[in-house]
Each structure stands twice: as C-alpha cells, then as structure tokens.
Specification:
It is built from 7 helices and 7 strands. It is an alpha/beta fold and about 260 residues long.
C-alpha cells in the first residue's frame, strides 16, 4: 500500500534519479519523508520504477523528463515540478555527463557538453529554486554532487573534471548570492558504484584503496545528502564521503588504473 502524502511534506527534485546513485538518493529521501520528483533523460522505464518505490515510501512521487544540456528544458523543469507538487523545497543536482577525454583529445564541443549538463543546468536549477523560495518567503537548499577527484586530480576525463571543478566554484558563489533563502552544499563521493569499465574484482580492489580500507557506499552518500538537506547550518562547503580517498595519490582515474 502506498504511503499517504501531505501537502506539508517537503519536496525534493533529484536529477538523474532513475537509476544508480540518483535512485539510491531518491529512495533514502523518500524513506525520510520527502516527496521526490524523479528527473530522468534516457531511463524512462527505470524512472517509473523509482517513482513507484518512492510513492510506496512517502506518498505521491512523479517522473519528469528533461535534457539537461538544453537550456530551455532546464528552465522549464522546476516550474513543472512546482505545478505538480505545489512547491519545491530542495534540488539535488546528481545527474552527470561522464564521457572520457584527455588533454590530447580535448575539444570545445566536449567541454561545452559537459559544462552545459554538469554545471550550467545545476546553476539554473539553483537560480529557479531561489526565485521560488523568495516568492514563498521560504527557505530552500541545493545539493551539488561533486567528485573526490577534485581534491586528488588525474588527467583522465578532462572535460568532466573541468565541469565538476566549475560546479564546486559555483557552489561557493551561489551560497553567497542566494543566502539567506537558499543554502548550497556539495557532496563529493569516492568510488561508489562499479561501471562497465571495471570487473567486479577490479571494483572491489579499488574500492578498498583508501585510508579507511573502504570508499563510499551508496548508503553513505545518500545519508550525507539527507544530512546536507536537513542541517540548516551547512552552506558553502563540500562534504567529502570517500573513506579518505582524496588523501591518496592516484595517477589515473579508477576506471583506467
């Protein structure tokens, strides 16, 4: 049986919430009583499942399609969520484009795609949440998903890393510009989920490469996002959730070691 929802329940938009880490964040927030707007791009079937699971946990959830590389679609996303739920209290900018390039293969086109999806979309959604919060005379919070590699750089995934570095800098500026209505917090996981580039054995061995002997789990990251959303004193900073991987030196990206 689906949980009953209430108009007073907080509402959060989680981008890229259909699958992988975004889904784990959405489910953790729904478990904590948040109604979740599930953004997706290419994963409609997965989005439907995430919506159903969130609805069972916290009441009404819904899926919202948008191409985060398209400015018009990004600008229209939060108003659609507001129209459906009546209000929005938070945005988790989780969706990320993650395409490999290097200094040798770098191009304006690749950089532009990453900056639009990973940086520009997050800034526009923060801008929209601020306008909405100010109109309601309410508060809001934005969580930007970053990456421990910003504190432990390697030359792989060049444009992706640039886009995340820009988002980390934008988080500081937004925390200043959007206060006091909106807080802005970064969350930077370490190696959390495997990928097609890694075998199970490779993932397990690289996950253990940290001072604590383990990197972040999806549950660790989701719990940190929830903490950032609900702790009213945190803004303008990044919480690294990586078992200390940012303290170690890695010459290559985990997927290419």
């Amino acid at each position: 049986m689906a949980a009953a929802s209430s108009p007073s329940q907080p509402v959060v938009l989680v981008t890229g919430a259909a699958r992988r880490l975004g889904r784990e964040i959405a489910l953790a927030l729904a478990t904590g009583g948040w109604r979740v707007a599930v953004h997706y791009h290419n994963s409609a079937t997965n989005a439907t499942k995430t919506v159903a699971d969130c609805t069972r946990l916290a009441g009404a959830s819904n899926a919202f399609y948008a191409d985060l590389g398209d400015e018009t679609e990004v600008r229209g996303l939060l108003p659609r969520v507001i129209a459906h739920f009546g209000h929005v209290d938070a945005v988790v900018n989780n969706a990320s484009m993650f395409e490999h390039d290097t200094a040798a293969s770098f191009s304006f086109a690749g950089m532009d795609q990453h900056l639009r999806s990973n940086t520009g979309a997050a800034i526009l959604l923060a801008q929209a949440l601020h306008a909405h919060a100010a109109a309601r005379n309410a508060s809001g919070v934005v969580v930007n998903m970053l990456d421990q590699k910003l504190w432990n750089q390697n030359p792989d995934f060049f444009s992706y890393t640039l886009s995340k570095a820009a988002l980390e800098a934008a988080g500081t500026m937004l925390a200043l510009a959007l206060a006091p209505q909106v807080r802005v917090v970064g969350v930077a996981p370490g190696l959390t989920l495997s990928s097609p580039l890694l075998s199970d054995e490779q993932f397990e061995s690289r996950h253990r490469l940290s001072p604590l002997g383990r990197s972040s789990t999806p549950g660790d990251v989701a719990a940190t996002v929830k903490f950032a959303l609900e702790n009213a004193s945190v803004t303008g900073t990044t919480l690294l959730v990586d078992g200390g991987q940012h303290l170690m030196r890695f010459e290559r990206d985990f997927s290419l070691m």
